[in-house]
Amino acid sequence: MDKYIQELISTESRVIVPAFGAFTMERNAEGKVDIAFNKWLNFDDHILSEYVAQKRGIAREEAEKLIADFANKLNNQLETENRTSIAGVGVFEKSESGIVKFEADANAVDTVATAEPEVAVVADSEASAKEEPAETAEENKADENIAPATPAAEPAETKEEVKPTYVNNTTNYYGQKRSNTWIWIVLIVLLFLLLAWVLLFVVNKDNVVYRYFYPEPTEVVEQPIAQPDTVVAEPVKEPVEKTSLSRRYNIVVGSYKDRPSADKKVENLHERGFKDAFVADYTNEHGHWFIAVIEEHSTLVEAEARQEYIVDNYRIESWITNGGE
Length: 325
What we know:
alpha+beta; Alpha-Beta Plaits; 4-stranded antiparallel beta sheet; 9 helices; 10 strands; 40% helix
């Protein structure tokens, strides 16, 4: 089974081992391939089972049984020894908090990095396109030796249409002298309006228009406010911070021993656009934790779909809880 997983990693962008986890491959700008592992992305997409069935010549149901036994062996080793591996793929280690860390095998990374890219057929077609004109020229030359070309008919004389053009800034479309009278009219009107504004609002401050737009300030006398005999202060309601998990399906992206680290993770999620992220308390057999929840959903199917979308588009690993279970 190790060999089949290694072969698929070199050709597929994602390989899922049902009931164990998924491997995702991504080539960066430098051409280097990164192999990541997500334990919580473990549904069956039938890619591995169909590949095993084809390689061994067995039914897909039998291949799924072999894969289930293989995943069960890996999970048992992680549970009892906190460590397991897939030959030629990488090593898995389970921390005290239950997080599985994966270190890719160097040979697996090299295998993916050296995988031959698809060769486009366009090159052959372009090469044939470049060679084609030479053959066509030879055929045309042979045709000229066989029969002389018929002289082309001379085109009939056409009367060229002369369009008027702009001569300079003082002429119009037809080359006639342009009049600047309207410019002087606009300038005179603007000067008249400016003079009228100065006379009404600056020089003569006693006119009705000026007093309408610039009324004289009036002194406002504040009336004393009667004080009640007894003043009962209403209690100030402080915002309630969400610290407990609901019975919905929560997508968790990290667990921490201290609250500041969890708050910092949630703040980073807010900056990346996940405005519903929050910090909640979480207690298991390993102790008390502060976990960062990126989203919560009402159904498991909806939560799994969002988890897969977040992994593919944001490269954020996560797992799903139901009210802390």
